[in-house]
Amino acid sequence: MSTTALGPALAKKRVLICVGSGGVGKTTVAATLGLRAAVDGRDSLVCTIDPAKRLANSLGLSALGNAETQVPASALEPLGVTARASLHAMMLDMKQTWDDLITRVAPPDQRERILANRFYQSLSTALAGSQEYIAMEKVWELRRKGEYELVVLDTPPTAHALDFLDAPNRVLDFLDNEAAKWLLAPALKAGKLGMSLFNRSGYVLRALSKFTGTEMLQELSSFMLSLSGMNEGFRERARGVRALLEDASTGFVLVTSPHPERMDEAIHFSTLLKQHRMEVVALVVNRVHPLPTEAMWQDAATLTPTRRAKVEETLRELQVLAEQDGRGIAQLQAACPGIPLIQVPRFGLDVHDITSLWQTGRFLLGDDTF
Amino acid sequence: MAGLLDKRLWVVSGKGGVGKSTVAAALALRSARAGRRTLVCEVNTQERISRFLEHPAAGPEVKLLEENLWAVDVRPQEAMREYGLMVLRFEALYKTVFENRLVRYFLRFIPSLQELVLLGKIMYHLQEKLPDGRWRFDTIVLDAPATGHAISFLSVPQVLVQTVPQGPMSREAQKMRDLLVDPAVTAAVLVALPEEMPVNEALELHAALKDKVHIRTHAAVLNQAIPERFTEADLEALAGHPELHRVAQANHDRASLTVLAGTKLERNLHAPVFNVPRLYLPTFGRDAIEQVMGHLEALVMGDK
Description:
The complex is a heterodimer of chains A (370) and B (304).
Chain A: H1 6-12, E1 15-19, H2 26-39, E2 44-48, H3 54-58, E3 69-70, E4 87-91, H4 94-105, H5 111-116, H6 118-125, H7 130-145, E5 150-154, H8 161-176, H9 178-190, H10 193-212, H11 214-227, H12 231-246, E6 250-256, H13 260-275, E7 280-288, H14 294-300, H15 305-335, E8 341-345, H16 354-364
Parallel strand pairs in A: 1-5, 1-6, 2-4, 2-5, 6-7, 7-8
Antiparallel strand pairs in A: 3-4
Chain B: E1 9-14, H1 20-33, E2 38-43, H2 49-52, E3 63-66, E4 69-74, H3 76-88, H4 91-98, H5 101-109, H6 113-127, E5 139-143, H7 147-163, H8 168-180, E6 186-192, H9 196-213, E7 217-225, H10 232-237, H11 242-269, E8 273-277, H12 286-295, H13 297-301
Parallel strand pairs in B: 1-5, 1-6, 2-4, 2-5, 6-7, 7-8
Antiparallel strand pairs in B: 3-4
């Protein structure tokens, strides 16, 4: 029934990842896609990262935790539809998910040491790309368990698109880097890591320690040593995540606002996805201002002078915004040939409740168009 | 209310997409017009501010845009190099150390080092002096990352002071923290839109800056504010024109949201809120920034 590219994607894909810069409506689009898929008969999970309670509210859940929670049928009542399959939602707690991962792959005697290490703590919270990585790792885990026919991932507000796409490679790089081996190998043999670090590398590392302090380097190498016990498990998973991103059953939905000022980010993201051989199912241009129609102008001319002036001023403003959006969209389409572009209008108020999610869905799936 | 001109470091942040760069550009331009030597810093991003002001991109080196106004896009690689050179002093030594593959590998995994050098460069310029002893820059406007990233970015010195063993990194961090938490030096300007999420994020950001970073919120800017236009009587009169009624109702709703958002910000931040009305211009350039600047006059200059 659907006339847009998202119809077949919702019917066939196993994983849909919503990406885009902050404030463009990724969470709304992700929640809408999950909702539509469940209504149309596929068991779906919406996995969101947005720390706000917006998605929870829209889906009638009092709180979203790190656990998958079923959206109650009553939440869908205002729509007058019943879902033919289950809809679940969860809010990803990054720190908890990292801890779970370590608990799963670390040798039992190393777990506590790793979890308490301050390098681990910064790896799991602050390192560029680590949030993005853990989100995808979670999706990989969910996908492997196979309880859902479709997982929709809402992604963190990424400062740099590359952090997101590069994350599995960075983790692999971290584990595979020969520098680590070079530093660690003799230490593993001798059991005296700190010593080897400074003896073998001479003045280079002495100079480096001037920069960071020697204790810092010693702690880092001891952390890497404790990680080496779980290298294989970690590496296998990171490879799995990378494969998942490139898999034919995974699709990306690139969400953007129509403003020309924001377009360069969307174009950049789409170029990177292409370079990484990842499939962009659709470009969703959210909150587009529709152009006032000729009939509206004619209608306005029949009003009393004061009201006519107010209405015409509003229409003129809308016209400026609609023309601006139109230029942005044309620019986007020209820069991303071959990728289906779907427009969702700016609604009267912001999308927070299930009815407006549904309304958004009608545009995403092409039941309604401009 | 005292104007921002009393402070030297103006931190601008808020939710993604609310117009942080627009506000940062307008504030910087006003500071420069007030005769202050002003540096506006973007942090490792696609540069916007120089373009808004219709100048060529500044890039990673401090560049003069126009009278009293300099800009820089602070990027990790260049900032790391400058920091390294400061610590190691000699270019040749820097090259041997920093262009070593092993070292590059290590540097990537040292927690928060990247943020530290980015912030470090900004703090360096804040303390930089001219030969005659005056500050090289009277005002630094920091177009900070969005909420979550801003909090972790600005907390880096605090976190490092607490967790890193005594050493050069922790000493640098200590110096930076002292400047950041000094209310005579640093002030935050939080930007929001008249919508629920951006307002909530501004409140979260305010709380985190206050409790974790100890930076004071000087004011909020409510961007894209919609002024009241249609009265209830107007809306009733439009009942027979469904299309026009929808347009008028949407405008009216957004105007009400603007009032609500302003009240919510004022009550929770205990700071003044400056409305910048939504602009309807075909292109967003210098004209737009000048208009925004006009609405922020009292924020910068204070009301006398």
